[in-house]
Amino acid sequence: MSTSTELDTRSSLRWLWRQLTSMRTALILLLLLGFAAIPGSIFPQRSQNPLKVSDYFKSYPGTAKFLDQLNMFDVYSSPWFSAVYILLFISLIGCVLPRTFEHLKGIGAKPPLTPRNLNRMEFHTETNLGTLDQAETWFRKHHFRIRRDGDSISAEKGFMRETGNLLFHLSLILILVGVGFGSLFGMKGDAIINVGERFINIPTSYDVISFGKLQTEKTLNPFSITATDFKATYDLTTGAPSDYKLTVNIADPVGSKEISKVVRVNSPLTFSSTKVYLQANGYSPLVTVRDKSGEVKYQGAVIFLPQDGNLTSIGAIKVPDMQPQVGLIGSFVPTFARNSERGAFSTYPEVLDPRLLVSIWIGDLGLDSGNPQSIYRLDTSDMKRIGLKTLKLHETHNFGEGSITFEGWTPWVNLQIVKDPGKIYALLGAIFAILGLLMSLFTRSRRIWVKERADKSGIEVAGLAKNSTPGLESEIASLVNEMRG
Amino acid sequence: MSSTDYAYLSNYGIYSAMVLFTIAFFAHAVEVAFSVRNVEEKTKFDFTRTKRSGDIGTVMMVLGFIFLLAAVILRGVSASRVPWGNMYEFSITGALAFTGAYIFGLWKYKIRWLGLPVAIAVLLTLGTAITILYRPSAPLVPALKSTWLAIHVSAAIISGGVFLLANCIAATYLILDRYESTSGRPAWALKLPSLDVLDQLTYRLVAFVFPLWTFAVIAGAIWAEAAWGRYWGWDPKETWAFITWVAYAAYLHARVTIGWRGRKAAWLCLFAGSTFLFNYVYVNVWGSGRHTYSGL
Ligand code: HEM
Hints:
The complex is a heterodimer.
Chain A: H1 3-20, H2 23-37, H3 39-42, H4 50-59, H5 61-69, H6 79-105, E1 123-127, H7 132-141, E2 145-149, E3 152-157, H8 159-185, E4 187-194, E5 198-200, E6 208-211, E7 224-234, E8 241-251, E9 259-263, E10 269-271, E11 274-291, E12 296-301, E13 305-306, E14 313-319, E15 325-333, E16 336-339, E17 343-346, E18 355-363, E19 383-391, E20 396-398, E21 402-419, H9 423-441, E22 446-452, E23 459-465, H10 472-484
Antiparallel strand pairs in A: 1-23, 2-3, 3-22, 4-6, 4-21, 5-7, 7-8, 8-9, 10-11, 11-12, 11-21, 13-14, 14-15, 15-18, 16-17, 18-19, 20-21, 22-23
Chain B: H1 3-34, H2 51-79, H3 87-109, H4 115-133, H5 147-181, H6 195-228, H7 236-256, H8 262-285
Bound molecules: protoporphyrin IX containing FE.
Protoporphyrin IX containing FE sits between chains A (23, 26, 30, 91-92, 95, 161, 165, 169, 172, 437, 440-441, 467) and B (207, 210, 246, 249, 252-253, 256-257).
């Protein structure tokens, strides 16, 4: 390779770097990031609502496939979104760091020399009274940084503006670092537990769990949480929830002495860097399924998912131990009502008059097919429906192949468990960003010069305000007044 | 008094404020329409003729603000909490912040000429609130029970009020700019400030609230961390708050570092303000996500 092409590459790289770290590019990237965020608020996102995404796929399969190729359902983790913010990040560093060094060097420096021609300045006035000494006293009283050279004074104020500005931009970098750190080294998961059950913090206890990309050890804090009581309070007229209170016994580590705690929506549990949030709640009906001979084949609480604000809930009960296998699609209605339009539904979220509606299927549950199955849905492709029944509390229904008894219910809660070691940096970044903004937006930066005429016929005063912020004119007037005595 | 009594009083407060703003609207309309009738050969203008009418407008605005303030406080008392639980309450508080921003501007920057558009905007907001958005006073849903509600929402609502005011001024700029570059200012607009002043005023309002808006977004993130287990999740409301933030940051940069002034800056400001309104209207009413507290 010849030296000249090497030089070419090097200079074009330098050119690229300069372009990338220019103000204009940063602005464009910033706006681009704003635009890039829009599709995520229009299309459902897998990270927020995977069910809605699959609904979208069912309703518009063609469009959905196309949109999926453009990452429209994972906008915020898509390559193009990441590209914009990584470029912005680099651009920000490339432009803010050199300015910071420049600024640090300027801490002790004197203001620049008084320019020769003052009458070109934005504000310019003259006075025949007063001396440079008087002007200097005034500048000192008002905390200007000054430079006096014989017949002139150059004074400067508003150093904090650039300091605040740099602090703000550096804080943005810190926020981005915090976000990145959290997503690389954090973890997040959900677990639904029935009241009365114990959750032990190991991966298999979770319904969903995801680890950060660089979270190698994948060890979790070894705590346990036993849900002992859950109380939801609702507004009597509207049915809107007014309070959720979960009482738990925690042990950290597992097996140590248990302590009782209360968890509410806005007050999570904390185990060092891990937090546990109360996210959602619902009901699990308690059922017993017996075979023809009356032997218990299934007994327990089955988690049902709420479908509306009054907690009409649906779920599936699977009994593989029977011949043929039995599956039930169920609907739990805490306060029962029925009309022709909606069928059975709930009119209040508390359990006042419960019903369990089941449709009974027999055949092959498909559990051995190897395909992962949702525990909330029944795969009825190899099954046949043999009955339909609305059960009252303690009622038993005999469906020929066996029987089902509606024994009662228990509430369940969804615990969200999150570990985010990066958030403290993001928070610090946010606090410094605001401080920096305030410093930069509310500091006026300006220079004032005072210069004796060569022929001693008077004194010239001139000023320049950065970004033409107002206020300089009256400041100069007050300086001149002082000099005139 | 019972909580429903307080709720009724609050509603009366809203109705009274609307009456006062309507009077202010007419007073300002008279002020604008008849201010420069005494034109002598288009050289001498008499602005004193409708000064009285303008004064009445100002008094009514201030009274309206006081009644609205009382109504918002009573609404809070009736539910024993801060009055920011649903979209009706956001709207009346937003109208309060907007009028407050106008009165602040009146005192600091002499912007009485904005009285007419401000009266119109407040009446529209309150009218929509009390007819379409109205909900009976009720306790908060659990997710909203937090000190952060008071901090985050008040910062957001005040920012919104000032953004709206800045938008009114930027729009005035563009309208007057169009007149000046074609036929010259019409008579009713002669009294309005120069384009330069409007341009500066828009910038100052934005520079003043940008830190507050930044704070509102950050307070929201801190709250989200406490309530939902993550401080940022690209929920539609969060996404649009971010877009608004970026748009205003771009406006400040365009002015300070690239030196945009006048028309281009005013359009950018209008764009940024409309992202805020979009967030409020679209995401609350039609959007999904976790910020669905509109009560609709
Ligand atoms: C490479 C990237 C960036 C560069 C080079 C840059 C540079 C600057 C400069 C030179 C100023 C002017 C300060 C002054 O003259 O007083 C400024 C101000 C500011 N920047 Fe940036 N900036 C960048 C990115 C950002 C980003 C990503 C944001 C956030 C959205 C941001 C927000 C602000 C704000 C709010 C101001 C204050 C405006 C004012 O002084 O009135 N900047 N920036």
